[in-house]
Automatic annotation (TrEMBL):
The chain crosses the membrane at residues 12-35, 271-294. This is histidine kinase. The keyword Cell wall biogenesis/degradation does not apply. It is an enzyme of class 2 (transferase). Keywords: ATP-binding, Cell membrane, Kinase, Membrane, Nucleotide-binding, Phosphoprotein, Transferase, Transmembrane, Transmembrane helix, Two-component regulatory system. Residues 487-711 form the Histidine kinase domain. It is a multi-pass membrane protein. Its EC number is 2.7.13.3.
């Protein structure tokens, strides 16, 4: 048994939980928002600094490019003072070397008093000489200058068959970089070459002269190697070991890495203070919410207790009670509602009785058979069901299994529909009490009744409709038979003429006494050959008129070939041109092959009649195969004039025809639609098209047969 709980405690706990959750959530979101805002501001400032420093470096690079072009133009002139003047004007240049094609110093210019380089020195082993073999310009990594023995960066370029080398003093760039400082007084910018050798570190300048390699430090392993440029991350300082927060950018010309950083602890310190303040505020508001929760719940449940006392007395039949007004207006309204509840209950009980009587009358007066079942067991049925199945009373069926009244061929289908709760109507053969079979159209649905799943099944007796369908099929067959007899006559005319001519020739030669054995043999062979052709024609037409009894798999293309063979005389006599566009692979479907041949014959005959009626030439009928992942399509297109839009949606209706009554029954396309849609579970539709023949457009129509691939049926149709 479930343990009873106190509503008072649950509401109090829920009220406290909600208020505390809201306070904590709001506080947490506020802290996160402040943290993100602070972080976004730092990210923005760092990105801005990176852009400024990168712009300054690009300006320096552009100036060096200008210097290299100036040296190319003026070197070799008689006046050598121009390059010395250039050295004095450009503060960022410490020395200029000119090497010949073998890497030997041809000339040099330097600001340094102490010079360790002389003409004729071999610099062919220097990086800035070797790299120029594969490129026109080269920015070196940090190296120890042989001119003034200081860490230097060089820019080398080709000057015809000579090489110019500009040794760069980065002090002017350092002056710009040291302007960017953090709140703790440290500098924001670090610069490394492409190999990780430090170029600039205003906070620890000794690392520059030591040519410190930072490629294995966290600034590379945790930031540069893992993050994309202008992304931010946390890494440890390789000097102090403290956490740093920063970003980087790589200059596209020099390959230098520009690092911007802030002390991570300095960033987080003000956030920690804010978090502490928010936590104290959260604790204060939680205490406040607990106090008010107790106070409000006490007033609410005092009203509940009063209400419980009053409703208990009303339940005992004491309706004339005087009560005091409660603290909350809602409880007063609720109490007044109780006094009206008894009256409404009496009225609704009366209406419920009336509704039940109306439902029973409707249940038994409907034209459909209705059966209620729990699982497969019948629990109720209406009077129409009793009449259709020939029962004496409902009791004969109640308690029995639904499948007892289903024909053996359809039991698996009914089980599948029950299992999957499929709502679409479907056809089933049922067994009446006396054993006779009725054709039914069934639709069912599961409903909840008293906590149980109840199947409500509605059945309509369509035996008369099925009989009419069979009659329509027979009428279609008879109409096709008349058409086929005409085709037989066309196909027999020439063989019969040959037989008649051969026999007459023998008789005539005998009368004149000129008959020879050889002539008799030739004539007899001709007669036998044409007689065999007549026999084969009879077999083809007899197979077409054979009634299919069960479903079978057949190749669509074979059915098309058989239909064209049956119609070959008519096709030839009416000057029809049949174009086919078949796929490489032959496709099998499940159905009735002779019915499918009938559909093809109907479509070709309809096109033929339209050509004749509209007096159109040339007469083209195109048969085309298409296939996709789950379906197969067969398209019949012609240039016979198309179908008027006003009747396009009616052509599949029974007995609808545009021909004279002596020429058409109006059931050909209707039965074709039934064969494709109902018997083969496919789709059959038509649209008007423009058909192009020899650069001339004709109106026509296109019938499409769409069949599912790999479909399997577990039932049969009677045809």
């Amino acid at each position: 048994m479930m343990k009873e709980k106190s509503l008072n405690k649950q509401i109090l706990h829920l009220l406290m939980l909600i208020t505390i959750s809201v306070i904590i959530t709001v506080g947490t979101l506020s802290i996160i928002n402040i943290y993100n805002s602070k972080k976004e501001l730092i990210n923005f400032n760092q990105s801005l600094v990176l852009k400024q420093v990168n712009t300054k470096i690009n300006e320096l690079i552009n100036e060096i490019d200008d210097v290299s072009r100036y040296i190319k133009r003026n070197y070799g002139l008689d006046d050598k003072s121009s390059i010395n003047n250039l050295l004095e004007l450009k503060s960022f240049i410490s020395s200029i070397l000119v090497l010949n094609k073998d890497g030997t110093v041809e000339n040099f210019y330097s600001k340094s008093v102490q010079q360790n380089v002389y003409k004729g020195f071999d610099y062919s082993n220097k990086e800035y000489y070797k790299k120029l073999k594969s490129t026109n310009v080269y920015w070196s990594n940090v190296f120890l200058s042989s001119v003034d023995e200081t860490p230097t960066i060089s820019y080398s370029f080709k000057m015809g068959n000579k090489i110019g080398v500009v040794l760069i003093d980065l002090s002017s760039l350092s002056t710009f970089v040291i302007k960017f400082k953090n709140q703790d007084g440290s500098h924001m910018i670090r610069v490394f070459d492409r190999n990780g050798i430090i170029i600039m570190n205003p906070d620890t300048k000794a690392l520059i002269s030591q040519r410190y390699d930072a490629s294995s430090s966290e600034v590379f392993t945790e930031l540069i190697n893992k993050k994309s440029p202008d992304s931010h991350g946390v890494f440890k300082s390789n000097v102090s070991g403290e956490k740093q927060y920063g970003s980087y950018w790589q200059n596209s010309r020099t390959g230098w890495y520009l690092i911007v950083r802030n002390n991570y602890n300095e960033i987080m310190r003000p956030i920690y203070y804010i978090v502490v303040v928010f936590i104290l505020l959260i604790i204060f508001f939680i205490a406040l919410s607990i106090y008010f929760s107790f106070k409000i719940s006490k007033k609410i449940f005092k009203s509940f207790d009063n209400l419980h006392t009053i409703t208990s007395k009303i339940a005992d039949g004491h309706y004339s009670l005087e009560h005091k007004d409660m603290y909350y207006d809602e409880f007063n309204k609720l109490l007044n509602s109780f006094s009206k509840m008894q009256e409404e209950i009496d009225k609704r009980e009366d209406k419920l009785e009336q509704s039940l009587s109306s439902f029973k009358a409707l249940f038994n007066s409907t034209m459909e058979s209705i059966v209620l079942s729990s699982g497969y067991d019948i629990i109720d049925l209406n009077d129409v069901t009793v009449e259709i199945f020939g029962f004496e009373s409902k009791e004969e069926a109640i308690g029995r299994n639904v499948l007892d009244f289903v024909s053996e061929d359809y039991k698996e289908l009914v089980k599948e529909r029950f299992k999957k709760n499929i709502l679409e109507p479907y056809e089933v053969d049922f067994c009446r009490k006396d054993g006779t079979i009725i054709n039914g159209l069934v639709q069912g649905k599961f409903l909840k009744l008293d906590g149980k799943n109840i199947r409500v099944s509605a059945l309509i007796d369509i035996s008369d409709v099925k009989s009419k369908d069979k009659l329509l099929f027979q009428q279609t067959k008879m109409a096709s038979m008349g058409e086929m007899i005409g085709n037989i006559a066309h196909q027999w005319r020439q063989p019969l003429n040959v037989i008649s001519t051969s026999a007459s020739s023998i008789k005539l030669e005998k009368e004149f006494g000129i008959l020879e054995d050889k002539q008799i043999d030739i004539a007899m062979d001709m007669i036998v050959q044409n007689a065999l052709y007549l026999s084969k024609t009879i077999d083809d037409f007899r197979n077409f008129f054979r009634i299919d009894k069960s479903l079978e798999k057949f190749e669509i293309r074979d059915s098309i070939d058989k239909a064209l063979k049956l119609l070959q005389a008519s096709i030839k006599n009416h000057n029809l041109v049949i174009k086919t566009d078949f796929l490489d692979k032959k496709f099998e479907v499940e159905g009735y092959p002779n019915e499918f041949i009938q559909v093809i014959i109907n479509l070709i005959n309809n096109s033929k009649d339209a050509f004749i009626a509209n007096d159109i030439s040339p007469r083209i009928i195109e048969i085309r195969e298409l296939v996709n992942r789950d379906s197969y399509k067969l398209k019949f297109s012609d240039n016979a004039g198309g179908i008027p839009d006003s009747i396009l949606l009616k052509i599949f209706d029974p007995y609808f025809t545009t021909k004279h009554k002596s020429q058409g029954t109006g059931i050909g396309l209707y039965m074709s639609h039934q064969i494709i849609v109902d018997h083969m579970r496919g789709e059959f539709y038509v649209k008007n098209i423009n058909y192009k023949v020899e650069d001339k457009n004709y109106k026509g129509c296109c019938f499409t047969i769409k069949l599912p691939k790999n479909i399997s049926h577990s039932y049969t149709f009677e045809i």
